[in-house]
Amino acid sequence: MNNFLLTSIGFLFIISGCVPNPYLLNNNPECLSTIEGFYHSPFVVKVEKPTLVLTNEPRAILHGEILEFNDQGVLFDQSKQGPFYDPEPTFYNIDDILTLVDGNKNILYGEQIPSLVTTTELILNIRRVNDLNAKGIRLEFKPNSQFGFCLKPGLYEVKNLVFKYYPTNNLDRGVDYPSLFIQVDGNTSNYIGDIYLNPPDSLGATIKIPYKILDRPEVSGVVGATGGAVGGLLLAVANELAGVIGTHTLSFRDNTIITKGISSNKTNLIQIQK
Q1: Under DSSP, is residue 19 helix (H, G, I), strand (E, B) or coil?
Q2: What is the pLDDT of residues 69-107, one digit of tens each?
Q3: I want to staple 189 with a disulfide (CB 3.0 to 4.6 A). Which of 173, 177, 251, 259 is the partner?
Q4: Which of 43, 11, 44, 39 is CA-nearest to residue 250?
C-alpha cells in the first residue's frame, strides 16, 4: 500500500504540472524520430432534457420543450420559472443558437460546449525499455485530435495510464490491463495507430481497462486545505479502498496514415502483450 501511495501521489504531481511538454512534435518540428496518430474520444451530453443555449447569453442554460425545429430556428417552450411565471413559447433564429440539445441527448445544432458535455483526455506515462538512465515521459492525447511526439528510437513500455475528464478535471487510473509497448524506429515517423476510447464496435485490437479513482480536485482541494499532507494521504487510501469503479475500452486501429514528421512514415501500432 505504501508503494502504491508514493507512486500515485508522485504520478499525480507529474501530470498536474504546467511545464510545456518538451516531447511535443509541435515544439520539435525538425525531429527525425516521432510517434504519431489520432485519438478519438466521444463527447457525452450531460443534460437529461431539451436544452437551449443562446449566443448572446452563453452562461444562461434554458430547459424546456422543443416544439418545432428547422433550418430557420427553433420554437422553444421554456420550463416554468416558478409558481407565478411560465414563459410563452419563443422562436429563436438559427443565428442566435449556440447549442440546441434534444431529450435524447442529441446535439441538434451548434457547439459542444463544456457546460453541457464531458469528454476524456488520455495520459500515458512511458519509459524506454532496457535503459537504466531513462526518465518517465508523459504523453497527453487530447480528445479528437491528431497527436505527435518526438522520442529517441527504442522500445517503450506504458507504465501508467490515466483518464482525465473535462470539464471536471477528475482523474482515474487504469489497473490490471495488458502490458502496452510502443516501438520507435529511428529516422521514421512511426504511426502508432488511431486510438478509440469506448468505441461502439469491436474493430481493431481492443482491450478492457478497469479503473480506480486517482483524484477528484473538488474533494482533494478541501482535504488539502483542512488536513494538509496527512489529509491527502488518508484521501489516497480512501480512493484505493473504493476499488474499481468502472471499465473503459481502448481500440487500436490501422486507419489512413497521416503524419506530420519530416521522416518517411511507417506503421508501428501499439503492441498489446496479453
Answers
A1: coil
A2: 999 999 999 998 888 889 999 999 999 999 999 999 889
A3: 259
A4: 39
